[in-house]
Amino acid sequence: MCTFVASIRNQFSIMSIKTKLQGLSFRTGTIVLLMCIPFYIISFAQMLLPLSTSAKGVLWAVFFGIAKLFQYSGITILGVEGYKRLKRRLRRKHVKGGRIKLVIFDFDGTLGDSQKLITDTMLATVDELGLPSPTREQFASTIGLPLRECFTSIMTLTDEEADKCEETYRRIFDEKNVKGAVTLFPGVKETLERLHEKGFLMSIASSRCHRTLSSLVDDLGLSPYIQYVIGSDDVQHHKPDAESVLVTMEHFDVRPEATVVVGDTEFDILMGCNAGVHTIGVSYGNGSRESLEKAGAERVISDIKQLERYLMANNLLPVVALISTGN
C-alpha cells in the first residue's frame, strides 16, 4: 500500500513539474532547448581527452544525460505548436541571406486607435440582445480575432445567438463609426509618408469587411499611401491563420524570408509565424510586450517611429503591406 501511495505521489509530482514547465514562455523554452547543444558536443568531444575508457564512459553518460534533460525540458515548455514555430524560425534564419522586402502591418491597435469604438460596439451588442455581458477588458482581449470569435471565445452562445451578435454588431458599428471615431496613433501618418517617399509599397489586409476598411483608409487620409486592400470577405481563413499574409506575398511576389509582420496582438504574431515570416510586435496597442514575446515576436517596439529607424538601419528594401485586425 505504501508503495502504491508513493507511486501515485511520484506521478502527481511529475505531472506538476510538467504543468509548470508548460506554463513558461516560448523564449524560455527556446533557450532551454538550445542549451542541449553544447552538452551534446561536450559529451562526444571529451572522448578526445587522454583519459581512461571507464572515465570517458562516465563523463559521456553525465553530459549526454544533461543534454537529454535540456532537450526534453525545452520541448515540454514549447509544446507541439511552439516546437513547430521554433523550427520555422530556424528555417527563416537559415535562408536569411536576402533583405526584407515586404512589411505587413496590422491596422487596429497598430496604426489606428479603435479600441473604444470596437469595445463600445461589443458592449452595446450584448446589451441590446439581453445577453450576459463580459467586461470591456475581456472584449478588448479578443480584438484581432474574426468578429464571430470575439463573442464566442469569451461567451457561451448558440449558433443562432452568435449569428445575432455578428449581425447586430455590424449594424451598431456602422452607426457609431462616424468620421473621427477612429484616430491614428501618433507618428503613424508621418511614418507612412516617409516610407512612401522612400519608395515603399503599402497595402492593407484586414479582419474588417472590405467596405468598412476602405472607408477608414479614406477617412484617415491614408489612401495616398495604400495601394492594396484585403478585407475579411476577401479570404476564407482569418487570423491567426496565414492566408492573409500568403495572399499579400503572392500579390507582391515576395518570399516569406523577405517578409515581416508588424502587429499589436498575439494573433498578428501567430499569423506571421504560421506563414513562416519575420514578426515585430508593437506594445502601445491592445496586446502586452509579454504576450507578444510569448507568441514568438522577434522584436517588440514601443513607438511606430522606431520601425522606420529599424528598417533603415538594417538597409531594408522598400515594399510595405498593412494587415488589420479590426472588425
Keywords summarizing the entry:
327 residues, alpha/beta, 9 strands, globular
Could you walk me through the main structural features you see in this protein, from its secondary elements to its overall organization?
This protein has 327 residues and is an alpha/beta fold. 56% of the residues lie in helices and 10% in strands. The chain has helices at 2-22, 26-34, 36-45, 53-94, 115-129, 136-140, 147-152, 159-176, 188-197, 210-219, 243-252, 266-275, 289-295, 304-313, and strands at 102-105, 112-113, 183-184, 203-206, 228-230, 259-263, 278-282, 299-301, 320-324. 38% of the residues are buried. Mean pLDDT is 82; it is low at 11-15 and 315-319.
Give the gist of this structure.
The protein is of the alpha/beta class. The protein has helices spanning 2-22, 26-34, 36-45, 53-94, 115-129, 136-140, 147-152, 159-176, 188-197, 210-219, 243-252, 266-275, 289-295, 304-313, and strands at 102-105, 112-113, 183-184, 203-206, 228-230, 259-263, 278-282, 299-301, 320-324. The chain is built from 14 helices and nine strands.
